[in-house]
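As the work plan foresaw, the team has encoded backbone shapes as discrete tokens. One protein thus recorded appears below exactly as we store it.

:::
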Amino acid sequence: IFFKVIEGCAWLFGTVTLKYLTSLVFGVADDAHIGNILKSKFIGYKDFDTLMYTCAAEFDFMEKETPVRYTKTLLLPVVLVVFGVIIKRVTILKMRLCVSGRNEKVCKYASVSCGFFSFQLVFHALQLLAYSVLAILIMRLKLFLTPHLCIMASLVCSKQLFGWLFYKIQPKTLVFAILALMTIEGSANLRTQWNIMGEFSNLPQEELLEWIKVNTRQDAVFAGAMPTMASVKLSTLRPIVNHPHYEDAGLRTRTKIVYSMYSRKPASQVKRDLMKLGANYYILEESLCVSRKKPGCSMPEIWDVEDPANRGKIPLCTLMSKDSRPYFITVFENSNYRILKIPKE
């Protein structure tokens, strides 16, 4: 056991070291923020990029409703039974085979046979644990956990694991009973989804996009919130400064500059930085200036962590909503959006 612990620690240390050295040699910085996100989960570390992630519900801890839903559909109970049987089966089988060996060669052969039988099951069991940890830490990563739970649940049909039970109950009967019980909650979920009727409508954004297409040049460059920039690029084909691929290191840097409009920095400094990026227009969203999904998660509060020197001042976005002059010129305004033209010096 002591040797296995040392081996595991060496593997972990070697993996982290190799990753660090590889990133250092090739200058890879795209995933540098992942370590900070994990630090924020355990020690409360905060910076601009980390808060941009953790303030979103998708990157928060897994919500309580998820395991409840897994349980109601019987997915989680079935997987726990399968997982327990795998651990018990592999452990007992290996002990019996090794104990039954009369000499070292027989024991070694028994271990190889056991390993051949159990390798795939053990691999998937460990994979399940890894996906579970990821999903608990970052709710969005349920996208790996849920399919793997379904794969593990299918092992309830395995004769290698449940052959002892199939001598007493017909396999088809057991599987049919489990599926029938799952169908009770599953059919309710389907009916809930089928009853959702309607269509997407965002009139303020439609007005914004129509104004851009009619009143700006084809080469006019826009900056603003990442989701809005994706719509501007898709619908108007105008060049944009930043977009939602926040995992790219260069885009993180540019987006941070763009989002300084929601900080408490001086307007002259923000304008100067936007001009360096080549932006001609800025799309200001007043909702980002005041919205607060949870404590400490409004854009001005996020900037207070990054820029404590200006803490206590009125946010720039608030000032721009009242009067954008003399550094910016308001050329469009509706209930949600305000387009600020960035005049050249």
Remarks:
- The longest strand covers residues 281-285.
- The chain has 16 helices and four strands.
- The CA atoms of residues 53 and 59 lie 6 Å apart.
